[in-house]
């Protein structure tokens, strides 16, 4: 439950994030980490965001990047949008990455997750109705008999992919209840992965990735974080909250959500998992120690914000702000998908992506791809903050100079040792 003390802590957390009181999580462009990036084993198109190998995430990261920048009023380079639309296969789906778009896509290489990223980006950008309609039609053709979707067509459905597809359908203004296969709808497929009232109390509301060998559903945080957004009728970008909402919106109190309510129980599960994990989710590969699951934490924050539990979402976003550098700077090269999700998280929780601690997520994401066609003018508050952060003069210096000029006395005054520290990364 969100106690009064915790709500107060959330308010202080939101204020701290907005004020940029902590060290940045991101490495500035041109830093040593960026300089040590390993070259991609395949050529990286100039229109693509990021310099890492695009083989498995080219379309995914491009869609998220375009979407995140669009929410900040950035007009992307036409080449960046053209690259994304040019990756679409003739049947309407998208592959993870097609190095040669002049060649037909192999059906087995098409990717429901990448397609979901592309669809949500193109819907937000506008003007791409034909491409979006073709994608929706493709989703109908690759839907499984249980109503769900797999990562690649022809394999069993999974909770993550089904959640992402349902969100993409919602973004495209297509009711997933009307997308059916053998009498099972997309919503049937989604809810088929959710643990209900017969599960252990701690697992109620969670989503499974896939049933285990016995057919039992096992709670999976990664699947839960992406499927919960869809269960709440959400898609990207999640509507922006106000900063006051960030500090006060409590949503459904933990422990009171009905296990039969898909959205509320999913949100309750995620909040409890975040709270017990120090405001982040973890993952564990076979034979390895548990490690932070940054991406799932980011998706969980989006799901919580979408369901009205903005205060809980802020806690997770604040953890990412102070601990997410290994995610953003993985393998020595900036990950545009991570930056994009952080921008979407900040927006959804009422925080400022351009003053995310001491980092400007927007300019850092822009720097990973082609120069944008247009960027919005800085707001008055942003300009004021930038000027304040970059100033090396104490106000007393200005006052004394004014007095000296008025009296006609030339006085040299050194910089104040109490000048404000420039906090820009």
UniProtKB/TrEMBL annotation:
Q: Where is this region: Disordered?
A: 369-388
Q: Which range is the signal sequence, renumbered to this chain?
A: 1-22
Q: Which SUPFAM superfamilies match?
A: Terpenoid cyclases/Protein prenyltransferases
InterPro entries assigned: Terpenoid_cyclase/PrenylTrfase
What keywords would UniProt list here?
Membrane, Signal, Transmembrane, Transmembrane helix
Q: Where are the transmembrane segments?
A: 396-415
According to UniProt, the name of this protein is Squalene cyclase C-terminal domain-containing protein
Q: Which organism is it from?
A: Streptacidiphilus cavernicola
């Amino acid at each position: 439950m969100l106690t009064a003390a915790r709500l107060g802590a959330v308010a202080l957390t939101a204020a701290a994030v907005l004020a940029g009181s902590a060290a940045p999580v991101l490495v500035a462009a041109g830093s040593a980490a960026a300089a040590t990036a390993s070259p991609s084993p395949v050529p990286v198109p100039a229109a693509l965001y990021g310099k890492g190998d695009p083989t498995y995430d080219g379309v995914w990261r491009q869609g998220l990047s375009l979407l995140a920048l669009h929410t900040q009023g950035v007009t992307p380079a036409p080449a960046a949008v053209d690259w994304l639309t040019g990756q679409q296969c003739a049947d309407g789906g998208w592959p993870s990455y097609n190095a040669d778009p002049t060649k037909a896509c192999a059906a087995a290489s098409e990717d429901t997750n990448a397609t979901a990223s592309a669809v949500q980006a193109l819907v937000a950008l506008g003007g791409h109705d034909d491409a979006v309609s073709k994608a929706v039609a493709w989703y109908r053709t690759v839907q499984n008999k249980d109503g769900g979707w797999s990562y690649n067509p022809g394999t069993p459905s999974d909770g993550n992919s089904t959640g992402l597809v349902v969100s993409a359908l919602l973004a495209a203004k297509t009711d997933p209840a009307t997308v059916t296969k053998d009498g099972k709808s997309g919503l049937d497929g989604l809810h088929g992965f959710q643990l209900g009232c017969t599960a252990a109390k701690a697992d109620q509301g969670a989503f499974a990735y896939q049933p285990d060998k016995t057919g039992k559903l096992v709670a999976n945080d990664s699947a839960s974080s992406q499927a919960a957004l869809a269960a709440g009728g959400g898609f990207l970008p999640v509507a922006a909250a106000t900063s006051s909402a960030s500090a006060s919106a409590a949503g459904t109190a933990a422990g009171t959500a009905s296990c039969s309510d898909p959205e509320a129980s999913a949100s309750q599960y995620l909040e409890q998992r975040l709270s017990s994990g120090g405001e982040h989710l973890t993952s564990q590969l076979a034979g390895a120690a548990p490690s932070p699951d940054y991406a799932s934490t980011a998706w969980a924050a989006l799901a919580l914000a979408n369901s009205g539990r903005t205060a809980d979402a802020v806690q997770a976003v604040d953890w990412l702000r102070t601990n997410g550098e290994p995610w953003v700077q993985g393998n020595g090269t900036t990950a545009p998908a991570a930056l994009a999700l952080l921008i979407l998280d900040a927006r959804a929780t009422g925080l400022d992506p351009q003053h995310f601690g001491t980092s400007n997520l927007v300019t850092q994401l822009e720097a990973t791809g082609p120069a944008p066609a247009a960027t919005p003018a800085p707001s008055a508050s942003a300009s004021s903050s930038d000027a304040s952060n970059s100033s090396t003069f104490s106000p007393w210096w200005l006052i004394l100079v004014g007095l000296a000029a008025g009296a006609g006395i030339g006085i040299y005054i050194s910089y104040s040792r109490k000048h404000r520290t420039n906090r820009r990364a």
